[in-house]
């Protein structure tokens, strides 16, 4: 993980709807991962799409564990 590419984005948990800042490592490129909600501890799917041209975040999607992202 590259600390200079670790940015935080404001999101809401798809379960409890609580807002929190999600740290995203853009140096990994586009990828999918799982994070636990810091409030209700539910497993959240995270889809991160990074532009191959400039390395900037294109899409950040969160979903429940039974959803297809």
From TrEMBL:
Q: Which organism is it from?
A: Billgrantia desiderata
Which Pfam families does the annotation name? Zn_ribbon_21
Kindly provide the name given to this protein in its UniProt entry. CPXCG motif-containing cysteine-rich protein
What is the organism lineage in this UniProt record? Bacteria, Pseudomonadati, Pseudomonadota, Gammaproteobacteria, Oceanospirillales
């Amino acid at each position: 993980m590259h600390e200079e590419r670790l940015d935080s984005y404001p999101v809401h948990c798809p379960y409890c709807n609580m807002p929190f800042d999600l740290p995203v490592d853009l140096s990994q490129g586009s990828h999918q991962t799982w994070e636990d909600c810091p409030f209700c501890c539910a497993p959240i799917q995270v889809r991160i799409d990074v532009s191959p041209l400039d390395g900037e975040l294109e899409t950040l999607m969160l979903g429940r564990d039974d959803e297809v992202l």
